[in-house]
Design brief:
The chain is α+β, with helices and mostly antiparallel strands and 587 residues long. Helix content is 23%, strand content 27%. The strands form 9 sheets. The chain has a 4-stranded antiparallel beta sheet with strand order 4-5-6-7. Strands 8-9-10-11 form a 4-stranded antiparallel beta sheet, with no helix packed on it.
Length: 587
Amino acid sequence: MIARAIVVGMALLAISTGRAVDARQPRAYFTDVSARSQFSYITRNDYRSRKYFIQPLAGGEAILDYDNDGKMDIFFTNGAELPSMKKPAAFADALLRNRGEGAFEDRTTAAGLAGGESGYHIGAAAGDYDNDGDTDLFLANASPNTLMRNNGDGTFTDATAGSGISKPANTLSVGAAWFDYDNDRLLDLVVSDYTIWTPENDDQCADAMKRAIYCSPTRYISVPNRLYRNLGNGRFEDVTQQSGLADAHGKGMGVSIADVNNDDLPDIFIVNDTERNFLFINQGGGKFRDQGAIYGVSFNDNGVAVNGMGSDAEDFNNDGFVDLFYNDLATQVFALFAGDRGKSFRYVSYPTGLGRLSFRFGGWGAGFIDYDNDGWKDLYSANGDVDYLGDNAKQSDIMLRNLDGKTFTDVSAAIERAALALPGLNELAALQMNTLLGMCYSRLLQEEESAQGARLAFQRANEINGRQVAYDPVAAFHYFQFLSRYRDDATAQMVVDDILQRLPRFAPARLEKAKYYDRGGDCASALTAAQLALASDGNDINSERAAHILMARCYSMLGNAEDAAKEQQWIEAHPNPETPRKPPPLP
């Protein structure tokens, strides 16, 4: 019997199945078992009349067996009062001890984990940093971070003072991961840091209707993530500068650890909010180098830096190579990168169906889990919006079942029931660059999600547009995009070839041709097509960046390290234009 569990907000969902679930048979299901337990924890971000930038970041968790009884327990972080950053009882963290059979008991106070006066807590990471056999906790905070040592008797002691784990004043930390980067059998620590923030320097923003909203992350400066080397005896050394992590500034969110290039050295994948992602490749000797651009994971397939949130690193297609995943906000599409022989990654969100399935959702936490024990890792995403103002603000979490490592399907029963009633479908039309195809596409999503329906929509759009222009390449290109999302790649390429025959210098089509060659492993043809795309008409900074990303990856795959490095330099020199390079003025 194999049992797994997922924590969703404060609902405890248990699943137990003794065999793999066949695709043709009823799926395994989760049961809410929270009623079997007594606890008072509620995630609080102190939202009242004033919106603070930090408030959407609350409610991190760690799963650990803190008392070594063979059953996994749950630790939750919590926020604090704003602007005082004090942590009264209502804002206490929570430790739930697993009693078995889906029941938990609150052991927060007895364990000494309520949080005291340590401020606003966000992320948590569990690991035995002192090798005494007991799992310890690290808390990523808006205030100074906290290291909690497990005493082995059911209690924890704050071991931060004198540990060497410190950070620049007012640094906002979001997440962390324990790992042994130098193979000395002592767990080291990497922390994803976001920006410099205090309640006093918090900006206030409003929308066109003068309603208070959470400010864009681009209003805040970017900072480096931090790396701490474990020296033993409870001491750590901040090696951020000498390790190379200090060279890359971002707004760190999700952290994943994996040996992506099979050299027996763990690497670091950090997802950023509105900034390019980082893939720190372990060079050995305590050195790391960000090679996200060369490996093809710095941006999404369109060369855009999105609102990256949660992440995970696993082998979803069982080919022996690590794959990378992150979720982001609604309409941005969750990103899945398939590892290519440990040398690079390919963006496979659309070929696997993930693009279509995730389009309406905003994800925050995520993880691979083989919920049905069929040997294929499925995807779970904890969803929601940044604010409560949009039609799609209230969202359900989703479980995406992995079908033989090739595609995913949504097996979240609540999502399936609500899918046809979800508002905002017509908003998709606005994303289609005001072409009549957009209206057809929006109706198509409601009536028939098929390539045949897309053909009819495209045909009708060009009939109407034909009264004004002889040919509408934008409508044709959106038809191509639809076909790509629904995995009709052969027809999609016919559309691209038709566009290029009529308009040889139409850059979007040239770039998609390069991606097509790249997906097929033909890097030589992909490089030629990408160079033609850069020399064509209709490029913007994102499409240029997408072409350079493809070229960096292909040069690397072909062993041309010099040109790959030049492409990475170009990418790093062209970040999101609205990202500030200096702190915003204090109010």
